[in-house]
Amino acid sequence: MAKKENEAKSGQKVLDLDAKSESPTKQVSNNKNGNNPIEELESLGKSVVSDINKGQNPRIELSVRGLSNVVYDKESKTLGLGEKTAQRFFFNVAH
User: Fold this and answer.
1) Quick one: 68 and 50 in the same domain?
2) pLDDT in tens, 24-79
3) Helix or strand or coil: residue 43?
4) Phi then psi for 70, rounded to 5 degrees?
5) Which residues span the domain enclosing 22?
6) Is 51 helix (H, G, I), strand (E, B) or coil?
7) Alpha-carbon torsion angle 26, 31, 35, 38, nearest 10
8) Residues sharing a CB contact under 8 Å with residue 47, sequence separation 6 or more, in sequence order
9) Which residues make beta-bridge pairs with 87?
10) Of 9, 21, 37, 61, which is least packed with CB atoms within 10 Å of its CB?
11) Under DSSP, is residue 90 helix (H, G, I), strand (E, B) or coil?
12) 52 and 67, same structural domain?
C-alpha cells in the first residue's frame, strides 16, 4: 500500500491510504476467522488515520483478554476469546 501525502485545508499533511502501490504484495494465508490479515491491518490503519483527520483521539478496538471473555469450543475442544471488546485510545491519560 503506497502512502501519499496531501495538504489538508489547514495546511497539515494528510496521508492518503487509498493510493495504489506499484509494488506487488505477498500472498498471505487467511487466519482462522477467514479474514485476510493484511486487509485487517489496512482497515485498522485507515480507521486510525480517519480519526486523526477528523481531529478525534485515535482508537482501536481489541478483544477483552480475561476469564470473563473465554468460551469453550466443544467441537475442537479448545478455549477461545468471546465477543467482548474494549476500546483503547492513543491519548489515554488514565494510567
Assistant:
1) no
2) 444 444 455 567 899 999 999 999 999 999 999 999 888 899 999 999 999 999 99
3) helix
4) -100, 135
5) 1-56
6) helix
7) -30
8) 60
9) 61
10) 9
11) coil
12) no
